[in-house]
Amino acid sequence: MRxxxxxxxxxxxxxxxxxxxxxxxxxxxxxxxASIVLIAAGVxxxxxxxxxxxxxxxxxxxxxFQFVVKDFATATHPPLRPRLFINLGIATLMLTPYVRVxxxxxxxxxAERNAKYTVFTALVFSVLTYSLFLR
Amino acid sequence: MSxxxxxxxxxxxGFIGAMSGMGGGVVLIPVLTLLGMDIxxxxxxxxxxxxxxxxxxxxxxxxxxxxxxKVGMFLEMFTIVGAxxxxxxTLISAQAPLFIIFGVVLLGSWLTLLLRSNExxxxxxxxxxxxxxxxxxxxxxxxxxxxxxAYKGRRAYFGGPLMFGAGLIAGLLGIGAGALKVLIHxxxxxxxxxxxxxxxNLIIGxxxxxxxxxxxxxxxxxPALAAPVIIGIVAGAFAGxxxxxxxxxxxxxxxxxxxxxxxxxxxxxxxxxxxx
Lengths: 135, 276
Description:
Chain A is mainly α. Helices cover about 75% and strands about 0% of the residues of chain A. Helix content of chain B is about 75%, strand content about 5%.
């Protein structure tokens, strides 16, 4: 399906680019929406349980992966479940651009077969992976 | 600070952030510090929310075919390293310099928006070999003028290293540093204004993630405060994004000239101690 104003004779490269745009666009959209739903669910649950909107807790000295693992460890304690949802929402948010970069890398590598951009994207992916494991 | 207040501030910040392509932080951090939050914590919370603002608005721009994914990918190699370095500097820095740098960056953005407000976009005629090798070109359908605009990018050899600096500022101050990115896209690389704004938005998400990881590892991100900020900022950004695609560049610029000037002066005044 073409949008108004687009050239009907778009090349194959442009069509694959357009597919890539859809893929990246939807990853970002789904990631942000999922994280908002998780965070909002956590806040609403906390409000239902305590009658207060504000929460008080902090996490310290954890990287994203330790943070997520700890979330699942606390899932067995029912009073902590609203917190689990909020934490998972934040984790989902952080993973959204990360997954976007991963998808771009696979796309450049396997669909567009663009070696240059596969390498660039792989570099970005590696640095992000490193930063997520920082502590 | 109450949940309701944080939510309200964040809605406004998200709206302004999306309209400018600068991320919500430029409004969020000054307001949070005015209400008594420590600037380093404000920076850390802001940078998480910047992932949400930019990813949310970028999703619409990317699907509309305005964002240039290759330009984004190439420049992200530079911005993420900058963001990690910047965030590491903030962790060991004193508070006053952060206020001053924040104010200076805001006023710098103000000046660049002011100076380029009378200039239209001139397409790049001669693309250098490096930028050509990087395949920095594209086209998009402009909803305001109802035409397809084709363009080429140039001087990627300057654009890349300069984007390290933009990433550094982003990580250091917890903002998207969109104005700097847009400036580099516009003036150095010759991209059309809408492409530079929307591509900057895409880059900001990944850059903010790199910075967020550093602040998270340092224990600076409080999920209880981040929750209302993220929800509010996404709600505001959603509204702002829908408006940007339809507005002319000029209207957006005048609005930001006013907002940026006030916030920039206020932050510097606090950094040097004129305002407590």
